[in-house]
Amino acid sequence: MYQGYWELREKPFRKTPDPRYLFLNETYEEALERLLFAVEEMELALLTGEVGSGKTLLTRTLVDRVGERYEAGMILNPRLPPRQFLHTAAVELGVAEPRFHSNELLDQIHERLLALHEQGRAAFLIGDEAHLIPGKPTFEEIRLLTNFQLDDVNLIAVLLVGLPELRGRLRHRAYRALTQRFGVSFELVPLSVEDTRAYLAHRLTVAGAERLLFTEEAIARLHAAAAGVPRLLNHLATQSLIEGMARGVEEVDAAAVAAVLEDDFATAGTTPRKEGALLGARKK
Hints:
The protein is an alpha/beta fold. The chain has 12 helices and 6 strands.
């Protein structure tokens, strides 16, 4: 398709969470380092960010980085009542025949974690889309998982990943027993204009490009339209490459981006943020 026209080996702005494409600016590099610390220290951790901010890509990269020494479990749909949540966690952590009752499931998970420890391995569990967890009882089961420890070491790290509203929810007094256990907390923020340029360049380079392919004016328009959100940037950059090919240009210019934006629904309701709101990371 357009890869041949732009002399690319592959599509640079795919929606799949390929760790090769993780853009490590200051914010994302710190986020990854904090998550690695949480796994190594067997901590309870919280990662939040807006829709499309790159949370899933960060967690996939985390799994790749920690290697075979860790048993990694991932719950992609946490909209589960407590027992089903524990059942899913047990399966993800390698429990062969999960039982029915919650107490039995907790015992099985504990036994599995002890077995991993004896093998010189550890475990961590990622709860993606954690803002969808239905109620306090499921959060309570998560808290109970963090009780699994020996005298000198925790047996499991738990990472909760979700939208920013998860933070507001967890600030409620009812969750204080859980929130007091967080050892790592990080919130992603949108890319700045400078980061957007570097982000596009990074992904194009990984895909085989030897030049940027976008003019500075085009980059500025893409940034404003996407409000610094990586997922929206990916979508609009792809459409702009296709539009540029259709126009027969050597670089995607502002006119090509404007044509994409005229009828693209992906940015509906997106309000470009002021420059000051795009800088730095909010660390909790």
